[in-house]
Amino acid sequence: MAQRLGPAHFFAIVMLAAGLLLAAVPRAQADRLDTILARGTLICGLVESRPGLAEQSGESDVWRGFDIDACAALAAAMVGDAKALEIVALEPSAATSALAEGQVDLLVRAIPRGIRQRLQAELLFTGQGLMVRRGSGPRNLAGLGGQAVCVQNGETRQRLTAYLARSEPPAQVFGFPSLKQATLSFIGGACAAVSGPRIELALVRRELEQTPGSFELIGEMMDLAPSGPIVAPGEERFGQAVRWIVFALLEAERLGVTRRSLANEDVAQHDNPAVARLLGAGGHLDALGLPEGWSRRAIAAVGNYKEVYDRHLGALSPLRLERGPNALQEDGGLLLLPSMQ
């Protein structure tokens, strides 16, 4: 005979079922920004290691480069010390899982993989471009009509061929086993230009150019792709903080605030309201949850965006990579920043 359940039995069953349901739901992850602040260290995941971007100097384990300075600015803003930084080099295939599993706090200068990933801010535009002779070469891709272009065989040649199919008269494409060989043929006069990934062109130019400044990279690219910091899906508060720290470096360039000039900037009495806002006057950026003075610390650690770019990729670096699309939008580039108000 079935036994009727009393109120006490029914309550016990309900509580047991509720407990099982709660046990099946994973605990919410701690807010990433709070975790970093409590830990006192930022763990930055690198997805590409190469000269100018991220490399270890000599036999030491000290990292330097554009990506490293970006991470240092984030660390300075968040935990108050640009050296409170752990760099984890990742294979591109392992980067997404490392981020999802919390092995790193963010991926710096990464390209989104999948619909759940998105850039917090555009940090660097890269892609396949052209190197020409300074002063006498074509100024853009349209100017290649009827001329020869040297390129490495494979995907870069296929992309170039498809892009030049619209040129009139048709351009000739000469393929080589490597970018270095293609560049040597270009230097020897076989082609009016050489095509390849823009940063790789700058690297091979540094290696092969006998007279510095003889060749230049034009700003136009045929497969322009932005990269930037990526945080784990759902970390909106942390992502917002990362985004505004990058914006602060861009705004500092726009306003002419440099690492050197920052030592003399008085936030409370600065005669330029935009500079005062950038450096924290008015408290309008306190809602980000970052420690007070975060923008000043980020800029003081690495300088503004132009300083970082010039030091590792641009005019002051061995690569001498022209800004091109990596200039501020008001200077003809693609780096756009919102108002810091």
Describe the 3D structure.
The chain is an alpha/beta fold and 341 residues long. It has two domains: 32-125 and 225-331, Periplasmic binding protein-like II (D-Maltodextrin-Binding Protein, domain 2, 3-Layer(aba) Sandwich); 128-217, Periplasmic binding protein-like II (D-Maltodextrin-Binding Protein, domain 2, 3-Layer(aba) Sandwich), CATH 3.40.190. Helices cover 37% and strands 15% of the residues. It has helices at residues 7-24, 32-39, 66-79, 92-100, 155-164, 179-187, 198-208, 236-255, 259-262, 273-278, 294-302, 305-312, and strands at residues 42-46, 55-56, 63-64, 85-89, 106-110, 124-126, 128-133, 148-152, 172-176, 193-197, 215-217, 225-230. The strands form three sheets. Strands 4-1-5-12-6 form a five-stranded mixed sheet. Helix 5 links the parallel strand 8 (148-152) and strand 9 (172-176). Helix 3 packs antiparallel against helix 11 (294-302) and helix 6 crosses helix 7. The radius of gyration is 25 Å and the shape is globular. The N and C termini lie far apart (75 Å). The relative contact order is 0.15. Mean pLDDT is 85; it is low at 1-5 and 7-29.
